[in-house]
Design a protein that fits this description.
The structure holds 2 protein chains of 2 kinds.
Chain A: E1 10-12, E2 19-21, H1 22-52, H2 62-94, H3 104-126, H4 144-173, H5 183-213, H6 222-233, H7 235-256, H8 263-276, H9 293-328, H10 338-341, H11 348-371, H12 374-380, H13 385-414, H14 421-447, H15 472-505, H16 522-526, H17 561-586
Antiparallel strand pairs in A: 1-2
Helix pairs in contact in A: 1-2, 1-3, 1-13, 1-15, 2-3, 2-4, 2-5, 2-7, 3-4, 4-5, 5-6, 5-7, 5-8, 7-9, 7-11, 7-13, 8-9, 9-17, 11-13, 11-14, 11-17, 13-14, 13-15, 14-15
Chain B: H1 4-11, E1 20-22, H2 25-39, E2 40-44, E3 47-50, E4 57-63, E5 66-68, E6 70-74, E7 79-85, E8 90-96, E9 99-105, E10 109-115, E11 121-127, E12 139-145
The chains are: A mainly alpha, B alpha+beta.
Chain lengths: 592, 146
């Protein structure tokens, strides 16, 4: 490996002071664009799926509805997320470290594998050859090419993850980057490590099914499969979680120039995530036959709570980083919340960050902890509550955060100015409103027992019909789902419009306009304010990098009193929800 | 939170069932058939209605696309529902007054769910694990009488 990549491969970015390397830039851009295309396709499917959920407006047939649900799940939960994360990994391991991309040909081959895999898997699902949902539980069988498609994507991503590690190690070994990794890259590394074991367990599940589908294995035990499948089914979402948190830290830097109040605490939280979050996947098996009480207790709760603790740490570090930056850098020191009121709410990166954080915590996180409580799981397993929860985490949380950072990454990677800035300013709010409405609708419907993945909730064609879900309550909830989904699709379309318009019609410039980072000028420098984290004074990458000294949290002199207040509001909310769930379960007949 | 789950499992009345066995599908099918033959009291929508003796083990078969048989139970009695599937995975969802109990049903595994109905009436079962193109017509019923 060459010690120094040819100078012509580097481009000095005036907006960020990073040296942007050509191959890393092209690869990150290709993956990001592929991800956005998948998001657009998945969103279109979401529209058709949602319309079907209200009795009055159904128009597609059941067979196609199931095909669309299957393909939507795979396209969104796996493919869009994974491709975007690979883009983030390449960005983090090259540009944020001022280092060149390694193994360029291998990376393009991996990209080709992902594209081929996505085409195969999605094609089979839409052709009706793999209407088994993305969970693909045996003994329901699909065309072998479907399993092969998913495996190809997984292997492609694993190769990309390996290249990320090669990039990081080489960047350090060859002196492109000195000292510990910037926090954002550290978070991405956590996501990459979680990806390795998630995709590893996923490989066991999907390879077993592939061998079974071509007749090399006689059968795949359904309980065995479920255990391994949820290693990726939920594991992939933990990758999203870690990547999302890394993106949150990046957005704090981009939009208010803030940094975590404690580097070591934030890093410890990432370590806790790596060690414990995977065990949370067992909560999918809480009401399965075959597992003992202690197994369920240990894996889903005691060990998982350490991962919840990690999320709580991040949930404190991010808002307090915003608060401290707003108070110290921008002088908004009045009262508890002036820093929040005067925040850059028109900056899409900032609004995405805050909305993503709030919904992920208040709705996604709380519903997640509640349904991974052993007895609570009985109330909601496989009901619409579950998709309500994960649209709160993966869509309102991760997808919104990824959209937020895309407004900065795309201009930086494509060296074009953003098109449709006014649309971009509004987009996070529209998308958030839609997702919030349909997530809450799903959660409410789930409490009524409305099943997920059911094409027709009337149940009037059944031999033993039931009118449980055509009552006013569940139907109102389903109307909320429909209206929310329509609004979310509009919000998604706004995002896609800005991305594609920028890519194809954005003005090519030397210094792309990337929002608030530009607000740092001579005046701020004169006041002695530290540079925004993207602009590194010494030319080194400093996004989330080390402060000269960690701020100490002191009980006497709180630097972020507003955040502390917010944290207590959150904890109170959590306690109320937890108690409410227990009240609900106490109404059930004795069972066990 | 750390103690709530253990406490509820030990002291609460709504516990996660943990008793389960491996069972091959043919054996389960023949046991269900024998149970239906011995205790059938009627038929509803082409599905046999079966009344187990109070407190007796009651079989419940999940299959594409119904829960078989309809169970008629006595209020206040505790029954062991022996649940399994004879084809693909299903989800057993018992609907009760705007809420539901939900369990996973796997072929090859017998799940023992102890249930004590406390109210009389007809309670619907729906499948909530995708099981094929007839998933949305897969239902069942539990009738509770005094």
């Amino acid at each position: 490996m060459a010690a120094e990549a040819p100078a012509r491969d580097f481009l000095a970015c005036e907006a960020t002071h990073f040296r942007i390397e050509r191959h890393g830039r092209q690869l990150a851009l290709a993956h990001a664009v592929g991800a956005v295309v998948l998001l657009a396709i998945g969103g279109l499917m979401a529209l058709l799926i949602a319309i079907q959920r209200v009795e009055a407006v159904q128009f597609i047939n059941d067979d196609w509805w199931y095909r669309l649900v299957a393909a939507h799940g795979a396209a969104m939960l796996l493919f869009w997320m994974l491709l975007f994360e690979v883009a983030a990994l390449y960005w983090g391991s090259t540009m944020l470290l001022n280092a060149p991309m390694r193994l360029v040909k291998v990376a393009w081959t991996a990209f080709g594998m992902m594209v081929l895999g996505v085409l195969l898997a999605t094609g089979m699902m839409l052709a009706g050859q793999a209407t088994v949902m993305f969970t693909a539980y045996p003994p329901m069988e699909a065309n072998p090419l479907f399993y092969l498609g998913v495996i190809l994507v997984a292997v492609g991503v694993l190769i990309a993850v390996a290249i990320f590690f090669v990039n990081v190690v080489a960047a350090k070994r060859e002196g492109y980057h000195r000292g510990s990794l910037p926090l954002v890259v550290y978070g991405l590394a956590a996501a990459a490590i979680i990806a390795v074991y998630s995709l590893g367990t996923g490989a066991v599940a999907y390879v077993s099914l592939f061998l079974w589908s071509v007749g090399l294995v006689e059968n795949v035990d359904p309980a065995f499969y479920r255990m391994f499948f949820w290693g990726i089914g939920h594991g992939a979402q933990q990758v999203n979680l870690a990547a999302m948190v890394a993106v949150w830290y990046a957005l704090v830097g981009f939009t208010v120039g803030g940094r975590t109040i404690s580097e070591s605490l934030s890093r410890l939280a990432f370590l806790l995530l790596i060690a414990f979050i995977h065990l949370g996947a067992v909560h999918h098996l809480l009401v399965d036959p075959g597992l003992g009480t202690s197994h369920r207790l240990m894996n889903t709760s005691y060990l998982l709570y350490l991962a919840v603790l990690a999320s709580l740490i991040h949930a404190f570090c991010i808002p307090s980083a915003i608060e401290v930056a707003q108070r110290e850098r921008h002088g908004f020191t009045k009262g508890l919340f002036q820093w929040l009121v005067r925040a850059p709410w028109k900056e899409p990166g900032f609004s995405s960050l805050v909305l993503s954080l709030v919904f992920f915590g208040f709705i996604g996180g709380v519903t997640g902890v509640i349904m991974s409580s052993m007895q609570m799981n009985m109330l909601v397993h496989n009901t619409l509550f579950v998709p309500g929860h994960f649209h709160g985490t993966v869509v309102a949380g991760a997808t919104l955060a990824f959209m937020g950072i895309a407004y900065y990454l795309l201009p930086l990677l494509s060296r074009r100015n953003l098109v449709g800035v006014a649309v971009a300013r509004l987009q996070p709010y529209v998308f958030f409103a839609g997702v919030a409405l349909f997530s809450l609708g799903m959660i409410r419907a789930g409490f009524y027992g409305v099943p997920r993945r059911s094409a027709d909730l009337s149940y009037q064609a059944a031999p033993l019909p039931t009118d449980s879900f055509i009552q006013t309550g569940p139907q109102l909830a389903m109307w909320a789902v429909l209206i929310g989904a329509l609004i979310a699709v509009v919000g998604g379309a706004m995002f896609i419009y800005v991305m594609l318009a920028t890519l194809f019609a954005g003005k090519v410039v030397d210094r792309p306009d990337v929002g608030l980072v530009l607000a740092y000028g001579a005046q701020e420098r004169e006041r002695g304010l530290p540079a925004p984290t993207m602009v590194a004074a010494d030319g080194h990458s400093l996004i989330g990098g080390h402060e000269p000294h960690d701020r100490k949290i002191s009980w006497r002199n709180f630097e972020a009193p507003g955040t502390v207040t917010l944290v207590f509001i959150f904890l109170a909310w959590f306690v109320v929800m937890y108690a409410l769930a227990h009240f609900n379960i106490a109404r059930l007949w004795p069972v066990g | 939170m750390f103690t709530a789950m253990v406490a509820w499992q030990a002291l609460g009345e709504q516990r996660i069932p943990v008793e389960s066995y491996r069972v091959d599908q043919a054996t389960f099918q023949s046991e269900v058939d024998a149970f239906v033959e011995a205790r059938q009291i009627g038929e509803e929508g082409g599905v046999p209605v079966v009344e187990p003796m109070p407190g007796e083990d009651a079989y419940l078969q999940a299959m594409m696309f119904q829960f078989r048989p309809v169970l008629q139970l006595q209020r206040g009695e505790t029954y062991r529902l022996l649940v399994s599937s004879t084809d693909v995975q299903h989800g057993l969802s018992l609907l009760k007054l705007g809420t539901s109990y939900n369990f996973q049903v796997l072929p090859g595994y017998l799940y023992v769910i102890r249930l004590t109905p406390e109210e009389t009436g007809e309670f619907s079962l729906v499948c909530n694990e995708f099981c094929g193109l007839g998933h949305h017509v897969m239902t069942g019923r539990i009738v509770v009488v005094d």
